[in-house]
Design goal:
The chain is an alpha/beta fold. The protein folds into five domains: 95 residues, PriA, 3(prime) DNA-binding domain (GIY-YIG endonuclease); 179 residues, P-loop containing nucleotide triphosphate hydrolases (Rossmann fold, 3-Layer(aba) Sandwich); 176 residues, Rossmann fold (3-Layer(aba) Sandwich); 61 residues, no CATH class; 87 residues, Ribosomal protein S10 (Alpha-Beta Plaits, 2-Layer Sandwich), CATH 3.30.70.600. 30% of the residues lie in helices and 23% in strands. It has a seven-stranded parallel beta sheet, with helices on both faces. It binds adenosine-5'-diphosphate and zinc ion. The site of adenosine-5'-diphosphate (ADP) has 15 residues, from α6.
């Protein structure tokens, strides 16, 4: 009998190994095994094929001293790899204990993970009738322990968190584990505090900035079942839960759930796959569900629960568009007179305001006045962004991280000191706000100014405590925070994103603005949202002002259907890159030539990607559009294995792509 192991870091396929040990291997047992000239980690899948001759077969080096990967988790890994066309080994790698646990010494071996005591769960908050109905539906699903997807669709401030707490409580009371995914680790602190207040213990956290020791303990606690609740970023999905009973994906519509670097996957979609593999319920919570999710509700695949009103006294904010053509800001400034007035009034009443602009840095563009030349990244096909906060290396490429001091001579025409900064980034808006309101205490909430969780948590705390009057920031600021004294939200450029040719531009801007709008007036004080726009007549603006989400969704879904786009079809993107333009082009052409001829399976391109060059690599894209009934992953797999890709060419496969750049 030859057990089978599945080495990490290797594409799909299973290998036969001999098991030279006395005790019988358990399925899911993690092992070290020789692979080529290396030694890799894998897990035992089951019996071998018996096809490898006895003198050729290699023995497993050693079993790892860790709990085996549970069945549901293994099923999940293999299905995730099948669905996304990413190597199974890459997903396995994310499921392994942290390195330091694998190199465990006497001290770390003895470490025992914290125990979350769930024997005395406190009662839930007193729920309103609609909250209570929704909570009841969720606890029933958790009690059933079968696969189901429920969308918790409720306006911001309606108490979605309180409601899904009921589902978590139900799982914990049954001795099951629960996983909550958040789109942004910045939200974890507030979430923690709130959870601890209700449940009397602190949940475990999982994201990229968690310390090595904490990772080690959390992994162990999750795998042995002593930890009951984990809240984390998308990678928490790969923790090998021993006994998972429910998954919650909060703010399910957030684009940040899509991982685009390295291994490409959408955490919400894989969370659904994980729930399916474990035959457990999953809850998707959002005030603005993604169109994919809405289409699944309308077709009856997902169930929706609605929370139509804000909790308590809080009323929805008033949303108004400021027509920038009628009341433009003064020259070289970005805040219009009506917005300035509203800010002044807010500060006079000792209330708080937010200014939202989804653009990092000081100015998105630096150009030469003499010849019009734009400063661009030498390695990418993109302009350089000017950051005021970074004194010397102030020009940055947001695509590859290239940075440099601004030149004095124009590289194009040689003119001296003719550079001018165009357009605003958040830093420039902050400068303007500071000169208008020198007394206001303000902070910038962006990935540059609040890069680490501690700084960010501190900013949130100061805002909650009323130690700040004005928060200026990017989308990072838009998510889930609850600031009782916040009554004004100004959107500096509501048009940003509407022009971009990408499929989800309107959807994204709508969700983002709706989300930002949801920050205002969450308690007794009435909230107001002002949208600066050049196109107040645009359907997205109108739907926002009327706060008519469903009309927006109807419009957008009709448009997608008409143009044969997701969620009515499925897309996949193949990105071919090489240092040599010719080679990238040739490989892309070869792929196109070998494309399968199947009805309702359309191959568009190859064409140069909108960012033609990134980190010196030339980029060509093929876009595949398929009917939803076709087995897309399988067709792609067969196609791609039929083409030999030169080793200097990289092929990136992205199923259900979000990024078309
Ligand atoms: P959402 O997640 O839908 O934006 P939250 O769950 O954050 O809404 O609720 C908004 C605010 O209302 C929070 O401060 C929350 O504690 C409060 N809240 C909601 N429902 C209740 C309830 N049933 N009892 C007490 N407070 C509630
Ligand atoms: Zn670059």
């Amino acid at each position: 009998m030859l057990p089978l192991a599945h080495p990490a870091g290797n594409p799909d396929g299973l290998w036969d190994y001999a098991w030279p040990f006395e005790s019988f291997p358990q399925p899911g047992q993690l092992v070290r095994a020789p692979f080529g000239r290396r030694e890799v980690t894998g897990f035992v899948c089951g019996e071998g094929t018996g096809d490898v001759p006895e003198d050729k077969i290699r023995p497993i080096t050693s079993p790892l001293d860790t709990p085996p990967l549970p069945d549901a988790h293994r099923r999940f890994l293999l299905r995730a790899a099948q669905y996304t066309l990413q190597p199974a080994g890459a997903f396995l790698k994310m499921s392994l204990p942290p390195d330091s646990a694998l190199r465990a010494n006497a001290r770390t071996k003895k470490e025992s993970p914290p125990i979350q005591d769930v024997s005395h769960l406190p009662p839930l908050a007193k729920l309103s009738p609609s909250q209570s109905d929704a909570a009841m539906a969720l606890t029933t699903s958790v009690a059933e322990q079968t696969f189901s997807v429920t969308v918790l669709d409720g306006v911001t401030g309606s108490g979605k968190t309180e409601v899904y707490f009921a589902a978590i409580r139900e799982a914990l009371s049954r001795g099951l584990q629960a996983l909550v995914l958040l789109p942004e680790i910045a939200l974890a602190t507030q979430w923690h505090a709130r959870f601890a207040e209700r449940f009397g213990f602190v949940p475990a956290t999982w994201h990229s900035s968690v310390s090595e020791r904490e990772r080690r303990l959390t992994w162990k606690g999750v795998a042995t079942g002593s930890l009951k609740l984990v809240v984390g970023a998308r990678s928490a999905l790969f923790l090998p839960f021993q006994n998972l009973g429910v998954i919650v994906v909060d703010e399910e519509h957030e684009p940040s759930y899509k991982q685009e670097e390295g291994i490409i996957y959408h955490a919400r979609d894989l969370a659904v796959l994980r729930a399916h593999a474990g035959e457990i319920p999953i809850v998707l919570a959002s005030a603005t569900p993604s169109l994919e999710t809405v289409a699944n509700i309308r077709s009856g695949r997902y169930r929706a629960l609605h929370l139509p009103t804000r909790h308590g006294h809080a009323n929805p904010p008033v949303i108004q568009a400021i027509d920038l053509k009628a009341t433009p800001p003064p020259k070289q400034s970005w805040l219009s007179p009506p917005l300035r007035e509203a800010l002044a009034q807010t500060f006079t009443q000792s209330q708080q305001a937010m200014l939202f602009l989804n653009r990092r840095g000081y100015a998105p563009l630096m150009l030469c006045r003499a010849c019009g030349h734009r400063l661009a990244c030498p390695d990418c096909d993109s302009t350089l962004v000017y950051h005021a906060a970074r004194k010397h290396e102030s020009l940055h490429c947001h695509h590859c991280g290239y940075h440099a001091p601004p030149p004095t001579l124009c590289p194009e025409c040689g003119a001296e000191d003719q550079f001018t900064l165009c357009g605003p980034g958040v830093e420039r808006v902050a400068e303007e706000a500071a000169s208008l309101f020198p007394q206001a205490r303000m902070a910038l909430m962006t990935s540059d100014h609040a890069a680490d969780p501690a700084t960010l948590a501190d900013m949130v705390r100061r805002m909650e405590k009323g130690e700040l009057d004005l928060l200026i920031g990017t989308q990072m600021m838009a998510k889930g925070h609850h600031f009782p004294r916040l009554t004004l939200v100004g959107v500096v450029d509501a048009d940003l994103g509407l022009q971009g040719g990408d499929l989800r531009a309107s959807e994204r801007i709508f969700q983002m603005l709706f989300q930002v709008a949801g920050r205002a007036g969450r308690e007794d004080l009435p909230g107001k949202v002002l949208l600066q726009t050049h196109t107040p007549e645009h359907p997205v603006m109108q739907a926002l002002v009327e706060q008519n989400r469903d009309r927006f969704m109807d419009l957008e879904l009709a448009f997608r259907k008409h143009s044969g786009m997701p969620p009515y079809t499925r897309l996949a993107s193949l990105l071919v890159t090489s240092l040599s333009e010719e080679e990238a082009h040739r490989t892309a052409m070869l792929l196109a030539k070998k494309a399968p001829q199947i009805t309702d399976f359309q191959v568009l391109g190859p064409s140069p990607a909108p960012i033609r060059i990134l980190r010196k690599r030339h980029r060509y894209r093929l876009l595949i559009k398929a009917e939803k009934t076709l087995p897309l992953s399988k067709i792609l797999r067969d196609w791609l294995t039929s083409v030999t890709i030169p080793s200097s060419v990289r092929l990136k496969v992205d199923i259900d792509p979000y990024n078309f750049l």
